[in-house]
Amino acid sequence: MMAVQGGPSPNVARAAALVEAGRTQEAVRLLESSAAADDPEALYTLAMCRVSGQLLPRDLQAAKQLFGRAAAAGDAESAQIHVAFVAHGAGGDADWTKGVGMLADLAGSDETARRQLALIQKMALTDGGDPLSVPQAERLSQSPEVHCVRALFTPDECAFLIEAAVPRLQRALVTDRATGRLVQTQVRTADTAPFPLIAENPAVHALNRRMAAASGTTVEQGEPLQVLRYTPGQEYRAHFDALAAGSNQRVLTMLVYLNEGYEGGETAFLQTGLKFKGRTGDALLFRNASADGQPDPMSQHAGLPVTRGTKMIASRWIRARPIDLSRPLT
């Protein structure tokens, strides 16, 4: 069951106890009764259940409405999430202009919203939130197909992502090819901060749109952005980003280097010996699979161990087609 920021209200606490006792239907009824009385914590909890698919079926449209009601009832976190849903279109049509306008309303009393808005106002964007232009990509390798895009993000944007990521960092997981489950392994020892739909605020969404434009894809094809931190000794050993099976392959990977001043940590393509280490804001784009969806054996790569300092990168896996948001990502 979803935790509530600041501690649960009495009815949310009772609902949590009912879930622990296996009485989930009673818990849902209690939450719905409290939500009907505009209890902001009950509304938030139900919204999170609709996003996660826990207790209730995943329904992003219902989640968006519940976050909006919770925001109107005074819940600050729900207000941020509702703005994100409006701007990037989860649970309905995307309305970038309306989302940014709502963010501006929040900025009067919310420092986090104020920082997001200030960053967005420095960006050259269309009315839909797309970049007016992106730097030209330069080819580094034909096979595997690898490009770099210099200065895709500004230093301020990189600093923003690092600041937003640090409180969210947790041990990175990898997909077990046999089971499809996410597991801890010594293959990947970095820490990661994911930015799923509820955390894809308008500033993050604008950066996702820039990554999509630079990769020649749509923003809807991208998995949630992740920020990765590598400290001395941490690495991502030899691996492939392509999925072993599935109907919507990870065809591309884009990495954006968020800082400098560390040693080691190059991205290395093991079949060719190509190594790359970007400067702050530089992006690396490489293809993981062929046109028929088969993993490219030449795309095997590794994040070499950091030997001194801390490496921070933003990562986005890009699918062959837009991702179906009606169910959790697989």
Layout of SSEs?
Blueprint (H helix, E strand, L loop, with lengths): L9 H11 L3 H13 L3 H13 L7 H13 L3 H13 L7 H12 L3 H11 L16 E4 L4 E4 L5 H11 L4 E2 L2 E2 L6 E2 L7 E5 L6 H14 L9 E6 L5 E4 L10 E8 L5 E2 L2 E3 L5 E2 L6 E5 L13 E3 L2 E3 L2 E9 L11
Antiparallel strand pairs: 1-2, 2-13, 3-6, 4-5, 6-7, 7-16, 8-14, 9-13, 9-16, 10-15, 11-12, 11-14
The helicity comes to 25-40%
Radius of gyration: 21 Å
How large is the share of residues in beta strands?
A: 15-25%
Q: State the CATH architecture of the largest domain.
A: Sandwich
The CATH homologous superfamily of the largest domain is named q2cbj1_9rhob like domain
Low-confidence region ranges:
none
Total strand segments:
16
Give the SSE string. HHHHHHHEEHEEEEHEEEEEEEEEE
CATH topology of the largest domain: Jelly Rolls
Number of helices: 9
Oligomeric state, counting identical vs distinct chains: single chain
What about the largest sheet?
Answer: 8 strands, antiparallel
